[in-house]
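Field log, afternoon session.

UNIT: design team B
ACTIVITY: writing a sequence onto a fixed backbone
BACKBONE:
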């Protein structure tokens, strides 16, 4: 697919004209050479990286930009970088006299630069160091503020520059994460279609189909990824960027983020709160996609409830406080604003039962998803071993409270929330 052609926009049958304000995408060997031309009109550049990502592409980037690099913010590579208030301050406090931010990295570096760019009005360019996630071209920044995972509307990059030699040398875990993040789109797309039915949420068949095509394309690349084949890595990166552009087309992350991402956020947030280990984002998404497939199978194999489950406000607050601790209040405020707990969908579920079952049955089975993950050596036993049955069950019930988005997690809660063994 010609990504730069896609960037020109699409007048769509859904009634919208889809646009994306990224000017350049270069995914090629020695792509950093393009930086001198891309950044020609800028004079004072802030580089943002961590020690690992700077080691991967910092020298090439500095070489291309020369004396335009006025300042650098390089985070420690010894620990996981959290995109929180402290990290934001480190970047934003170095902006005096800066007219361009150049980030070197992947997920967190990208989100930091995107967020600070939006807040400051200073444009940014991202030099990608791993094909590990789909946020490069999306207009949302996934930050952790007030202890909560919040996706803020943010600035799109002026350009995405990805040297395929650098991408292919990324840690294998990050290559698997990018593959896993794309497999997660099976679940996200299914949730999008489900919410369109239940909530009449905006839905675009063009975006849906093109996202689905990226999943199908990626499945063929597993062996090449494991061999660090540069063309395979390039193709995965292209798929991730295309999906990011499609999120911009949709005006939200809906085509790419649903129940599987909510579960992933649960493990990340509780990991940070409790200081416990969690998988990289894309790998958590991949494993969580198996769990959401199992949820769909459970609903398809059961009868639709004649009365949905609701716990008392006191019990809900107690449960969320036990899980999320200082973050619980933010979850409660969010859900009160959205009104999900006040919404009795019993009649709607029964009325739409046939259509709901049709949508849920479109998702590949949990075994099929497991087989896809096994192609890159991702084993569900590692997931079960790290988190354990109880934590996974808790995530299935309460990960939904971290977000305002309707997904299959809500049907599961509505039908099975009051059953202790699920």
């Amino acid at each position: 697919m010609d990504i730069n052609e896609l960037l020109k926009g699409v007048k769509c049958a859904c009634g919208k004209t889809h646009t994306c304000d990224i000017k350049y995408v270069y995914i090629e060997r020695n792509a950093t050479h393009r930086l001198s031309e891309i950044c020609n009109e800028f004079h004072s550049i802030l580089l943002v990286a961590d020690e690992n990502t700077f080691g991967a592409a910092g020298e090439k980037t500095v070489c291309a930009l020369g004396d335009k690099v006025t300042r650098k913010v390089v985070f420690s590579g010894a620990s996981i970088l959290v995109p929180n208030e402290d990290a934001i301050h480190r970047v934003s406090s170095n902006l005096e006299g800066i007219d361009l931010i150049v980030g070197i990295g992947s997920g967190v570096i990208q989100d930091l630069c995107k967020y600070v760019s939006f807040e400051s009005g200073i444009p940014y360019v991202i030099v990608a160091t791993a094909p590990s996630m789909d946020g490069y071209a999306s207009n949302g920044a996934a930050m952790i503020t007030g202890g909560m995972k919040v996706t803020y509307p943010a600035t799109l990059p002026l350009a995405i520059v990805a040297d395929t030699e650098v991408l292919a040398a990324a840690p294998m875990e990050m290559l698997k994460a990018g593959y896993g993040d794309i497999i997660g789109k099976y679940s996200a797309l299914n949730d999008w279609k489900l919410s369109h039915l239940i909530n009449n949420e905006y839905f675009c068949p063009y975006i849906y189909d093109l996202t689905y095509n990226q999943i199908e394309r990626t499945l063929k690349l597993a062996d090449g990824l494991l061999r660090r084949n540069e063309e395979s890595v390039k193709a995965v990166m292209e798929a991730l960027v295309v999906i990011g552009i499609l999120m911009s087309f949709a005006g939200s992350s809906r085509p790419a983020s649903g129940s599987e991402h909510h579960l992933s956020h649960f493990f990340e947030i509780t990991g940070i709160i409790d200081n416990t280990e969690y998988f990289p984002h894309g790998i958590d998404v991949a494993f969580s996609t198996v769990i959401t497939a199992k949820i769909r199978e459970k609903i398809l194999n059961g009868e639709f409830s004649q009365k949905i489950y609701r716990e008392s406000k006191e019990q809900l607050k107690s449960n969320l406080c036990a899980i999320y601790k200082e973050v619980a209040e933010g979850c409660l405020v969010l859900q009160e604003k959205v009104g999900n707990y006040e919404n009795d969908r019993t009649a709607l579920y029964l009325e739409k039962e046939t259509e709901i079952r049709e949508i849920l049955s479109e998702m590949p089975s949990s075994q099929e998803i497991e087989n896809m993950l096994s192609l890159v050596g991702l084993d569900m036993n590692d997931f079960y071993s790290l988190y354990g049955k109880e934590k996974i069950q808790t995530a299935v019930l309460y990960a939904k409270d971290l977000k305002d988005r309707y997904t299959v997690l809500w049907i599961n809660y509505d039908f099975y929330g009051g059953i202790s063994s699920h």
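LOG NOTE: The two ends are 43 Å apart (CA to CA).
NEXT ACTIVITY: expression trials, pending approval
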